[in-house]
Amino acid sequence: MTGQQRDRESSGAKSGGPGAERSAWRDDRLWQVGFLVGSAVGAAITVAGRRAEQSARQGLVDWPQVERIAAGRLRHAPGTLTAAELQATEPAWAAAMAKVAPALATHLGAELPGVVERIEVVDRAGWVRANVTSFAQLIRTLEGELLDQLIPPGAGWPKAAMALANRWVSTRQLGLLLGFMGQRVLGQYDLALLTAEATPGKLLFVEENVRQTARNLDVPIDAFRTWIALHETTHAFEFEAHPWLRPYLASRLERQLQLFSRDASSLGREAMRGLGRALRGEDTDARHWLERMMTDEQRRLFRETQAVMSLLEGFGDHVMDEVGKELVPGVARISERFHARRERRTPFERAMLRITGMDLKLEQYKKGEKFVAAIHRDGGAAALRRLWDGPETLPTADEIEIPSRWLARMGLGLALGPGGDQDGATA
Predict the structure, then answer these.
(1) Which residue among 77, 101, 163, 369 is least crowded, i.e. fewest CB within 10 A of its CB?
(2) Cα-Cα-Cα-Cα dihedral of 115, 367, 138, 319, to 10°?
(3) CB 187 within 8 A of CB 78
């Protein structure tokens, strides 16, 4: 370009000629492209936010993923059985139930309900599958309110992203928890408390764990199966022979869930503080860290429920040992080794039990066993029967600790004395 050409172009730009037009056109195009790109990004963020919000509102937990995580952890656990091997054990469980049902009916003075025909022998993954269904039903009762707190309508992608992150964490926590429990549960009376009362419960026996535990304890497998069947069938009797018990527990559980969902905004912070203190060994409060997060009403409901659960477990253990004397060969050896096994926990197991609150179940066994033994010793069979008359005869948390208070409230302590009821029946 010559000097004259540069002068002409410069002169044209200054005077609004062709050079100025080209420069203005380029500026317009850049502005339009920027506007379009910005609009596209904004639209993409809006769409992504709506999709994230829709995805987050699908639930607090990804239940299929929970099952996959738990099943993955259990796949390599010792003592895994094939489907054919599992099915081959069904006659052995049927034989155990054929002995358990009439013995319990005689001991308890009542015919057992139809649950004795509703049994299922499962592997560990089958137990996980059943409990994923129960957990999902439980969480679903409070999910809507919690999601409204986490993701208010139109909250956009930041809160939706946080809710999705929470779901990712919760899903993996539950998967690991069920994977941990799935290697330890031997049997279960499977009853969904929050479904319609007509929905029947069923007995689950986790054959892989039963067989592995019998091997570890060095006890005969057939006798051990009968002992476990005796315990779980007693739980079935507790609920199905006393129709008031299920709605009683369900009403308390529903109320607790309502209170927890209402206070969910502060629950997470308090839970982390309490858990941190427990893990650091700074926990000097006698109450469980879960209990300290609760309001007064929540704590009252929690203690009522804990008292009932202690009774259920204690009564089950009592009947298991009493009936087992005649029904299970070597029952004293089985019971001694099994209870010693409960006390032997690795540091990891103790931490997991504390974190998840499963240590409360061990407390239920201990307190319940002592309570029922004291009631049987000082009140006899009549006192044990009174336990199941209705909600008003259930022991309180204080009475679980001091059984004589329950006997006094029922008017049984002095009337019957240490010898039990007048006809000398045992329970």
Answers:
(1) 77
(2) 0
(3) no
328, pLDDT greater than 60: yes
Selection from 116, 360, 330, 323 nearest residue 223 by Cα: 330
Measure the CA–CA gap between 187 and 228, rounded to whole angstroms.
7
8 A C-beta contact, residue 231 and residue 187? yes
| pTM (two decimals) | 0.74
N-term to C-term CA, the chain: 114
| Per-residue confidence (pLDDT) for residue 403, from 0 to 100 | 94
Burial 197-211 (b: 16+ CB within 10 A, else e): eeeebbbbbbbbbbb
**Do 347 and 377 meet the contact criterion of CB atoms below 8 Å apart?**
no
What single letter denotes the amino acid at residue 269? R
Give per-residue pLDDT as tens, 212-256.
999 999 999 999 999 999 999 999 888 888 889 988 988 888 887
Angle at 380 between CA 377 and CA 382, to 5 degrees: 155
